[in-house]
Structure formats: structure tokens, C-alpha cells
Design brief:
Blueprint (H helix, E strand, L loop, with lengths): L13 H6 L4 H18 L10 H7 L3 E5 L5 E6 L6 E5 L5 H17 L8 E4 L8 H18 L2 H11 L5 H9 L3 H11 L5 E8 L25 E9 L18 H8 L3 E9 L2 E12 L9 E8 L2
Parallel strand pairs: 1-3
Antiparallel strand pairs: 2-3, 2-4, 5-6, 5-9, 7-8, 8-9
Helix pairs in contact: 2-5, 3-4, 4-5, 7-8
């Protein structure tokens, strides 16, 4: 079993709290050590997917699943008798539950002391907002990503599938993670600069709405008050210098809109206004949740420089 690091205490001054939290490279090493131990103890294991329940079993952590109302996803409690992780499965996809479990397993590697301290993973701000807490949660996310999508396997998957929108749901399914987790990992791992984003039909306030069933273009300019397809979230790779603006409307003549209207994947080279600059990007698209007579609930776009 990998040796756990000393906990990042939630008491004491900021320097003391920050000092016990590993950097991202050390966090990845912790994950790889646990992966290697699990492979040794489970010789018949043939991932992907990389089952987080198996990691918990190797670490002798009890995992309980509950269905409760509330904005929290998971909780880690390092009890002396036997540490436990509680997962809230209400309104959570299997991929989100897997990531939440892996995130709490990361807390167990960083805080093995039987203190009874509870660590929440939540959809809203349960955290104290400190630099140390942000660094701790970022380290746990990095460990979780490496446990569920180890670099060696993930790079091989990208090599086979390619960096394109159609690959995102396939890779997410192969590794048992959410679409957003897969997209974030793709832009981190891809050899060339890229971005992967999600586009939803929203009202002017940013709330996701159901797109019209009729195949027609929706309002696209910011001056118009109606709902339309807009940028919801885009993950940008380190070498991708431009940034998509949240809630930016999708142009009527974009391949993104074509996929929103038809549900069919597409590809094109298009000019996008990103900040004050017009940029030529190669874009591929894929629909999420499209079916006969029903518009997709989201559109995935993958972007790379055209030149």
C-alpha cells in the first residue's frame, strides 16, 4: 500500500496549512503508487475502466452510498476503526459518482490520521475559500484524474480515437467518467494545443432550457432577448492561447449550430471571435442526447488551430 503523506491540517496559520499539501507532480505520484499497488493485489484486473471501489478496497476504506437531498456529492471521514467514504448518488451520473469517490480517496492519501474530520465534495461552496483549501482540493482533483484516467492509458486512448468531439463520449464511457472530466483530461494530455467545449441552449440568464423541436435557427445576437445556443464551458489546453467566453452565442452559420439543429456530427474550419481577435480554428462537433425528432441537450466542440 502506498505510504500516505501527512495531512494538510485545517488549523494553524496559512504557511503551516499550505506546507503539508503536495504539488501536482507529487499528487500524480501518489495516484500512480496506488495504481501500482492495486495492480499487484488484483492480478485479474484489466482496466479501463479504473474502478475506484477497488482502490478503496485496497486501502481498506468502507464505501457507503446514500440518496439524500442536498448539494453535497461525497464525504470522507478518517475514523480510527475504519475510514469511510459516503457517496450521495442523488441526481449524480455514474461518472460523477466515480470521480467523487476517487476525489475522497485522494483525501485519504493526504489525511490518513483518525481525526474524524469530514471532507466534503459539493456542488456549492462548502469550502473556506483559503489558498490552502483551494490547493488541497486541486491536489485531490489531480489525484482523482490520475486514478481514473492514468496518463499512459489515456494517451493511448487519444492516439486511437483522435482529438475530436466524437471521441469525447467514447473515451468517457471507456474510462467510466463524465463528459466534462474526459474533456478536461483530453486537453491536458493531447500533444498539440486544443480546446474542448460544451454548448447548451440557454436563456439570457444562463439557465439551460429545452431547445425548440422545430429545425430552425434561434436568435444568436446578444441584443436579442430570446434563448439560444451558447457557450456553457470550454476546457483549454496549456498551449491553446485563446479563450471562449462563457454564454457567448453560437453563430447561425457555425457547424456547432448545424449539429444543434440536426444532431449530426460535423467538421469545418471557421473563424471565431475570441476576445478582440478573429481566429481560424479547425472544429469538430458531436451531439449529446439527440434522438429522432428530438434536439440534442448539448453539443460538444473540439477546437485546434487551423494552421
Amino acid at each position: 500500500m502506498p505510504a500516505p503523506r501527512h495531512p494538510a491540517s485545517r488549523s494553524g496559520n496559512m504557511d503551516d496549512r499550505d506546507a503539508g499539501i503536495p504539488g501536482l507532480d507529487e499528487a500524480r505520484t501518489l495516484a500512480r503508487d496506488l495504481l501500482a499497488t492495486t495492480q499487484q493485489e488484483c492480478p485479474g484486473w484489466n482496466p479501463p475502466p479504473f474502478t475506484p471501489d477497488l482502490y478503496a478496497r485496497v486501502l481498506d476504506i468502507a464505501v457507503l452510498r446514500v440518496d439524500e437531498a442536498g448539494p453535497w456529492d461525497a464525504m470522507y471521514i478518517p475514523l480510527q476503526a475504519k475510514p469511510r467514504i459516503i457517496l450521495n448518488t442523488r441526481n449524480a451520473s455514474a461518472g460523477r459518482v466515480n470521480f467523487s469517490l476517487a476525489h475522497e480517496i485522494a483525501h485519504s492519501l493526504l489525511d490518513p490520521a483518525p481525526s474524524g474530520t469530514r471532507y466534503f465534495r459539493a456542488r456549492t461552496d462548502y469550502y473556506d475559500g483559503s489558498v490552502a483549501t483551494h490547493k488541497l482540493e486541486r491536489a485531490c482533483d489531480e489525484i482523482a484524474a490520475e486514478l481514473l484516467m492514468p496518463g499512459l492509458w489515456f494517451r493511448e486512448a487519444i492516439s486511437r480515437r483522435g482529438v475530436c468531439a466524437q471521441a469525447v463520449p467514447v473515451i468517457a464511457g471507456d474510462f467510466g467518467v463524465s463528459l466534462e472530466a474526459a474533456a478536461a483530461r483530453i486537453v491536458e494530455t493531447a500533444e498539440s494545443p486544443c480546446a474542448v467545449g460544451f454548448f447548451h441552449h440557454t436563456d439570457p440568464g444562463g439557465r439551460i432550457t429545452s431547445p425548440p423541436s422545430a429545425s430552425r435557427a434561434w436568435p444568436v445576437s446578444e441584443e436579442e432577448s430570446g434563448s439560444c445556443w451558447r457557450t456553457r464551458r470550454v476546457f483549454h489546453g496549456t498551449g491553446f492561447p485563446w479563450r471562449f467566453r462563457t454564454a457567448q452565442p453560437v453563430a447561425a452559420d457555425s457547424v456547432l449550430m448545424t449539429t444543434a439543429l440536426t444532431g449530426r456530427p460535423g467538421s469545418a474550419v471557421e473563424a471565431f471571435r475570441l476576445g478582440r481577435t478573429w481566429v481560424a480554428l479547425r472544429v469538430t462537433t458531436a451531439a449529446v442526447g439527440a434522438s429522432a425528432g428530438r434536439a440534442p441537450r448539448a453539443v460538444i466542440g473540439a477546437f485546434s488551430p487551423a494552421q
